[in-house]
Design a protein that fits this description.
506 residues; Flavocytochrome C3, Chain A, domain 1; Succ_DH/fumarate_Rdtase_cat_sf (chains A, B); homodimer; alpha+beta
Chain lengths: 506, 506
């Protein structure tokens, strides 16, 4: 029989006469026995959980730094996670394309834009760390073969155009090349492999993980569990929890299953909760972001999201009850989502506003033909036709279009102070393309607290939990109340790379 | 040698050949061995952690329901926790005093007021549960001997006067009688007893706790740890974390140690974090409330807080830069705290606004003489004297006072829509009493998620964690973004009573 210490502090083991049997275990903090006696099914140098931007970038960076044995475990049957279906929008300051387009930008400017959207509670040090390394991450994607549209976009809340977008207008334009690069470099990739919890050592440090093999998402506990020793540590790159309806409703009871969500189904948050069980600090879980560019006429991210992200700078968003604009079309996401949710009919029911764009401008985006083809967007030859279709009062709408076109001319939006740089010469005129807008749950600002080394802090000691790193949407607090669009990919990749660097130095 | 299961799921124990030794333990979720082999130092029927409103009410209710062996453990040397130093303000709908004063109120009205302050994310079911039982809780305090001022107050965000206040203007006017009642009923009360974590059984259920005896707050791990079996379960009534600077800064980096805090020093949040380690759901930690009635001229809750809570309805809050009002003086706490924090000089430095009250009205509150005596408030015989002292522009201030007195006359505030019921006939006129205002960290809306049985939900299963109950500020999500003043005592007491009832039924 072995003596088992169930106490939280080693000092007090003696004299308590605790019998063996390991009947019960204390929470993982400060577990007191040495890591002897367990049979590891595998020993691996670096364990990465999740195959989105963060996990893939971590694996590539680890390999570059000389790691020999790097494994990525993905619970779904496919690789890429939620990253593979996002919009493929990548913000970075001081890039070749900014130089080409004559855009003056800096790390500090990007940080300042994000701090404003964060409404006072963003993590400035983390934002600066990510912005400082964003170009490196972008270069990693280019080196892997990612292809981008030959123009920059200026997304809501950004004071300048600094956003690249993949030619496929989708995150898969990054995850696929990075996955290919991982395999070229000898990274071992495992799908249907579900992380089931940590195995920790004497001082609560992470020594390894429990992994369910041959896992089938959504089925009742299939697969077999094995124990994997992670010699250098574990990088948690498990993403957000926007698809976990119970948990998002715990934060916001209005986010029921009836509210749309742009995320892949695997975004359910267990990895984050297992870190809370280790003592990680939950930060900003209450801040769940809805994408203001989504359409109620299609499921998920769909075609409209990228269409409207591209078109917002030179479009008008109209409240159908009044026929008037109701927001700066390129304000930050929270500002716009809140403004859209306030568009109601006289009984208070949702009345999704419409985004009106000149067809001549909208058609430059490849999704324009698709939104029309799939009846999630419509083309009109006259404002009368448009107004009738959406039951918008005609004269106020005509007056609004005329007023806005005056702002296009002067370059100053007297209604909402929109930055008109990207609207230059883009008058709202027939024929029009129109989509409907309604926010969808998109991104979890909350997660575990990390530092600029991608280490996870312990809630009791404030010190990093040894052997544990986290990167990407599973982390919280970086962006504060509202994340700016196209700032997630650089964050995921930079923090994934950072985790690999920290681990290889440790 | 015993076989030790380190897996998260019992099904998969067999065939993995895990050696004994209990070297490592999985996080507490779904721990798999039977609770055999541990030596309990004590066996207790009901364990209550924390001796504030929630813990005391739970103990009394448990005794009333026939519990034989109820113990309260308090980590500090004194009993009462942060409750003992709060303002002693107790909101309840449909009370004897409302009847006497002719105030029409209802449970639904109180819930509606709180939902508005919660800004869409409050927990309506919990609010209704608390409001429905608030009068019972108030009665428990009266039965125990609490004494209240013979008038109601109408606090910010409440649409009617429904707030009792202890004659000592302090929560000790409730905690002391409740503590006395506990002892009369045979509740065992232990001070210097620090909760150090849970001991859990086969399915993750709470079987008992680790308790450090002879603990001295703030010293380096003194005392001795014992194991206590809790036969009916554990009620966590451990309060908020407003005094844990690192953890509140994790949520809001602006809440540094330089920001004032009204809480007792023990409000450090370990109990909450131990529940997260068990798998409890963290809710709304990002929403930390600052009290808009606090003064920068004294530490903690001080004398001014109760003074200004009482006087806000018939006072004007003035921006010293402009000489004008800048908020509805009885808006909800967040609205007012945000408005005060926006009062800045031309360089953007904090310029605490002033609250001006007619001395004739303010002197009805017992703190008036104290705030003047201790130089945290001042009396002026003329508006000229007042304006000079605080460097407020005289003419705008005079005009503001005249304008506001017009609102007192008509009963309608055309500036900020303040409810003028309690301002009737209370004109702002010399001599004046004046205090300065600046928000202090006061209350954590966030905590563990509970249901209307005071059960703590598990983040993975959504089911209650067996043997575990929580009540009071350690719980989160009830109030949403902003808790209304005087709604904490009813919440703490009702949820404490609820926990006892659930436990005695289980």
């Amino acid at each position: 029989m072995n003596k088992i210490d169930l106490l939280g502090r080693r000092k007090f083991i003696t004299g308590l006469g605790i019998a063996a049997g390991a009947a019960m275990v204390a929470p993982a903090m400060a577990v007191s026995e040495k890591a002897t006696g367990i049979k590891w099914d595998q020993e691996i140098e670096i364990v990465i959980i999740g195959s989105g931007f963060a996990g893939l970038a971590a694996a590539i960076e680890a390999k570059k730094l000389g790691a020999k044995d790097v494994h990525i475990f993905e619970k779904m049957s496919y690789f890429g996670g939620n990253s593979a279906i996002n919009g493929g929008l990548f913000a970075a300051p001081v890039t070749p394309m900014q130089q080409k387009e004559g855009v003056e930008d800096s790390v500090e400017r990007m940080v300042a834009d994000q701090l404003a959207a964060g409404r006072g509670i963003a993590d400035e040090a983390l934002l600066r760390h990510v912005a400082s390394h964003a170009m490196e991450a972008l270069q990693m994607t280019l080196d892997a073969g990612s292809e981008y549209h030959p123009y920059l976009q200026q997304l809501g809340g950004h004071s300048v155009a600094r956003t690249y977008q993949t030619t496929v207008s989708c995150g898969a334009g990054i995850t696929q090349p990075l996955l290919k690069k991982c395999r070229e470099l000898g990274v071992n990739t495992h799908n249907r492999s579900k992380f089931e919890g940590f195995l920790v050592g004497e001082k609560g440090e992470v020594l390894g993980i429990k992994m369910r093999e041959n896992y089938h998402f959504g089925e009742d506990q299939p697969g077999k569990i094995i124990h994997i020793r992670a010699k250098r540590g574990v990088i948690m790159a498990t993403g957000g929890f926007a698809q976990n309806v119970n948990l998002r409703m715990a934060q916001d009871p209005t986010l029921t299953s009836e509210v749309g969500c742009t995320n892949a189904p695997g975004a359910t948050g267990e990895g984050m909760y297992e870190m809370f069980r280790l003592g990680a600090i939950p930060v900003h879980l209450a801040h769940i972001q809805s994408g203001p560019w989504a359409s109620p006429d299609e499921g998920g991210f769909g075609y409209v999201s990228n269409y409207s992200i591209y078109n917002f700078p030179h479009s008008i968003a109209i409240n159908r009850l009044t026929g008037k604009r109701f927001m700066d079309e390129i304000a930050d996401r929270k500002t716009r989502a809140d403004a859209e949710l306030a568009c109601r009919d006289e009984q208070g029911n949702a009345l999704p506003p419409i985004l009106i764009t000149s067809y001549a401008d909208s058609k430059k985006h490849p999704n324009t033909e698709k939104v029309i083809k799939y009846n999630v967007g419509w083309k009109f030859d006259s404002v009368e036709e448009l107004a009738k279709h959406f039951n918008v009062p005609l004269n106020p709408l005509k007056a609004q279009i005329e007023e806005y076109n005056g702002y296009v001319k002067t370059g100053k939006d007297a209604q909402f102070g929109k930055n008109m740089t990207k609207a230059k010469d883009k008058y709202i005129k027939a024929p029009f393309t129109v989509v409907r807008l309604w926010p969808k749950v998109h991104y979890c600002q909350g997660g575990v607290m990390v530092n600029t080394k991608a280490e996870v802090k312990d809630s009791f000691t404030g010190e990093p939990i040894k052997g544990l790193y986290a990167a990407g949407e599973v982390c919280g607090g970086i962006h504060g109340v509202s994340r700016l669009g196209s700032c997630s990919i650089p964050e995921c990749m930079v923090m994934g790379m950072t985790a690999a660097r920290s681990m290889m130095k440790a």
